[in-house]
Amino acid sequence: MEALLEKNKPNNLNFAEVLLDSFTDMENQTYTYAIPDYMKKHVSLGTPVIVPFGETHLGGYIVDLLAENSLSESIKIKEIISASYEQILEPEYIELVKWIAEYYHTSFLSVLKTAIPSGILTKTFKLIELNISEEEFSDFIEIQPQHDFREFCNFLLKEKKVRTTILKSNFGNATNKFLKKLQSLDFIKTEFIFDTRSKYKKQLCVTFLKMPDFLSNREKEVLLIISKNSGYLTFQEIIKEASTTPALLRKLEQKKCIDISEQVVLRTPQNYSEGQNKTVKLVLNEFQKKALDSFVELQKQVKRDKVLLLHGVTGSGKTEVYLQAIEYVLHEGKSSIVLVPEISLTPQTVNRFRARFGECVAVMHSALSEGERFDEWSRIKKAIAKIIIGARSAIFAPCSNKALIIVDEEHEGSNKQDKNPRYNAKTVAMKRAELNNATVLLGSATPSIESYYYSENDKNWELLELPGRVENKILPPVLLVDMRKEFLEGNKSIFSRKLEAAIAERL
Question: pTM for the full model?
Answer without folding.
Answer: 0.74
